[in-house]
Amino acid sequence: RGDARLQNEDRERAKIDLQEALSIDPSYTYPGLVLFDAHLQDSEFAQAHSVLIRLEESVNEQGRPFILARYAQLAAKRNDLESAANYLREVCLFPSDRTWPIKASYDAMVDAGWHQEADKILQEVLEKAENFHPWVLIAWLESPAGEAAQPETTLRILERVNRIHPRNAQGFDVLAEML
């Protein structure tokens, strides 16, 4: 019901319905994520934060990157560069089979005007982290910093990514295109 009310522009009743759904089954995170998004869009940051705290109590390890990404979005909306950067970094290091958390965290920083800082985090993760989500490579390559990088820098990063993630074809594909 909450989703349908949001689509029909009945935002306040939608939020009530979503809150009720979250109360009935906190382990079903979908209503909580939609509720967070609605609060964030309405600049209701305290309420958005409360939803995240509640979701964090019931989310499993696989869902954690989605919560971290929303924390990054909230930090960016609150103009908290340090927290947004920390959440982006944490999302990049988190093992997951999904790319959305990285993209959402990165986009939140870019939308807040912190493009250079976000690009720097991606590059630092690629150059220094012991392990990271393989999609960080693509995010960096598509960023202004990645596009402007010297070929030697890109090759060095690609070789490192391919050593850390030998089963991930993306790095090898990009390396083959460069050579």
Briefly summarize what is shown.
The protein has 179 residues and is mainly α. Helices cover 76% and strands 0% of the residues.
Characterise this structure.
This protein is mainly α. The protein has twelve helices and no strands. The protein is elongated and about 55 Å long.
Query: What is the mean pLDDT?
Result: 91
Shape assignment: elongated
| N-C termini distance | 53 Å
> Which percent range describes the beta-strand content?
under 5%
Largest sheet: none
Unreliable residue stretches: none
Number of E strands:
0
How much is the radius of gyration in Å? 18 Å
Order of helices and strands: HHHHHHHHHHHH
Helix content range of the residues, please? over 70%
What is the number of helical segments per DSSP (H or I, 4+ residues)?
Answer: 12
Name the structural class: mainly alpha
Topology:
Blueprint: H1 2-7, H2 11-24, H3 30-41, H4 45-58, H5 64-77, H6 81-93, H7 100-111, H8 115-128, H9 135-142, H10 144-148, H11 151-164, H12 169-178
Helix pairs in contact: 2-3, 3-4, 3-5, 4-5, 5-6, 5-7, 6-7, 6-8, 7-8, 8-9, 11-12
Q: What structural keywords apply?
A:
179 residues, mainly alpha
